[in-house]
Design brief:
Elements (H helix, E strand, L loop, with lengths): L2 H13 L9 H6 L20 H16 L10 H10 L7 H12 L4
Length: 109
């Protein structure tokens, strides 16, 4: 497993000794799993991915594409929603995609 793919495992292990955070360790471990099973570290899919991990997956992606990065300029929330919807069912839980788009439609830029 490469460094990037191992980061999810390391993150989940780092918080294990913290009793109040032990329940979120699986979310950290699996937050790079794709809904279609093409993600990592275990290649699990659909509802086998813990709900918390599926939420983190979509929230992390949304944040990454709506925030300026040294290598990429941020895009609007509307464009981000369109980008997220392109990967509904493959990268992201389609139910969560719909909820995100609905929530963002109720927000003002």
């Amino acid at each position: 497993m490469g460094y990037i793919k191992a980061a999810s495992y390391w993150g989940s292990e780092i918080i294990r000794p913290i009793k109040s955070l032990i329940s979120v360790a699986p979310y950290i471990l699996h937050h790079h799993e794709n809904f279609d099973g093409s993600g990592y570290p275990m290649g699990i899919s659909g509802e086998k991915i813990p709900l918390g991990a599926r939420i983190i997956r979509i929230a992390d992606s949304f944040d990454a594409i709506t925030t300026d990065r040294p290598y990429k300029k941020a895009i609007s929330r509307q464009s981000a929603c369109e980008e997220i919807m392109k990967y509904s069912g493959s990268h992201y839980d389609p139910v969560l995609c719909s909820l995100l788009v609905k929530a963002m439609g109720n927000q003002k830029d």
